[in-house]
C-alpha cells in the first residue's frame, strides 16, 4: 500500500483499469454477482448493455481499491486537493444550531467523501471495525478530525451526542444490516432489500435534516467531483417502511448519477423475505447468470402477484 500511495493518481487508475479487465474476463463470483444485480436493477437493458456496464463497474471498483492507498496514506490536504468540483455544497450548511446527517453510499471514492465531510466541521463517522488493517483505516479516517463511532450501542450514543451538539454525522447507508431488529425490507431498484432504520431513528430523535453525499471519479482527469443531494421526503417518517423506502430512493438517485461506480458485486440482496428464492447462486458463466435472473424475475412476479392478492 505504501508503494501504491507513491503512484500518481492517473497511474493508479491505469493499474485499476487493467485489474478490472482481468476480473471482467475471468469467471469469478464478483463478476457473476455484479451481472445479476445489474440485470435485476435494469430490466430495460439488453444483454450487451448489461455486460458492458458490468465490465465498466469492475474496472471502476478496481480503480477504487488502487487509489485507496493514496487517500489513506498521503497527507489529508493532498487527498482533498484532488476534489475539482462540489455540487450542492449549500446543503452542507448547518442551520439553527442543528447537526446534519450525511449519507455516503459506496459510490466512487467514499473514503474521500468522508475526509471532505470532516474538513467541513466536527464530524462523527459510524464505523464498522475491520478484521484487517483496522488501525490504518481508523488513522486515515480520523486525520482530518473525524471521531469514529463503532457500530455498537455506545457508538450510536456518540452519534446522538454529536447531532445534539450541532455536528455532522456520516453513515454508509447501503450495507445489509446484520441484526433483525432495526431493519425492514424496502424496494431498491424494485427489489426487496433489508434496509437499516438507524437513519430514521436518528433523524426523528434529533430533528436534524438528512442529505446524501458521494465523490464521483472524473473520467480522464486526476480528480473527483463531490455531489450533495437532498434526501427524499419521508426519510424521517414515523412509518418504518415509508422511511426505509425513502432511504433507498435516495441511494438509487445517487447510483443513477454514475452507475458504473457503484459496488454492484456486493450481495446487497442476500437476505430475502420469507419464501423468496436466493439470488446469488448458479454457475459463474455470463449466460448462466442471466438465466438465473430470468428465473428470478418469473418467481418475483408470481410472489408479488400472490402478495397483492392477499
For the biggest sheet, the summary is: 7 strands, mixed
Specify the overall morphology. Answer: globular
Strand order of the biggest β-sheet: 1-9-8-2-5-3-4
Total number of helices: 11
Report the sheet-strand fraction: 15-25%
Average pLDDT taken over every residue: 94
Order of helices and strands: HHHHHEEHEHEHEEEHEEHH
CATH class: Alpha Beta
Helix content: 40-55%
Distance between the termini: 55 Å
Q: What number of structural domains do the residues give?
A: 1
Radius of gyration over C-alpha positions, nearest whole angstrom: 20 Å
- The number of distinct β-strands equals 9
Low-pLDDT sequence parts: none
Structural class estimated from helices and strands: alpha/beta
CATH fold-type name: Glycerol-3-phosphate (1)-acyltransferase
CATH architecture: 3-Layer(aba) Sandwich
List keywords for this structure.
310 residues; Glycerol-3-phosphate (1)-acyltransferase; 49% helix; LipA_acyltrans; Lysophospholipid acyltransferase family protein; cell inner membrane
Written overview of the protein:
By secondary structure, the chain is of the alpha/beta class. It has a single domain (2-272, 286-309), classed as Glycerol-3-phosphate (1)-acyltransferase, CATH 3.40.1130. It is built from eleven helices and nine strands. The protein has helices at 2-6, 9-25, 29-41, 47-73, 76-80, 110-120, 134-142, 153-165, 198-206, 240-257, 286-309; strands spanning 83-87, 100-103, 123-127, 147-150, 168-171, 183-188, 191-196, 210-217, 224-230. A seven-stranded mixed sheet has the order 1-9-8-2-5-3-4, with helices on both faces. It has a two-stranded antiparallel ribbon with strand order 6-7. Strand 3 (123-127), helix 7 and strand 4 form a beta-alpha-beta unit. The mean pLDDT is 94. Its main location: membrane. It is found in: Cell inner membrane. GO terms for molecular function: acyltransferase activity. This is Lysophospholipid acyltransferase family protein. It holds the Pfam family Lip_A_acyltrans.
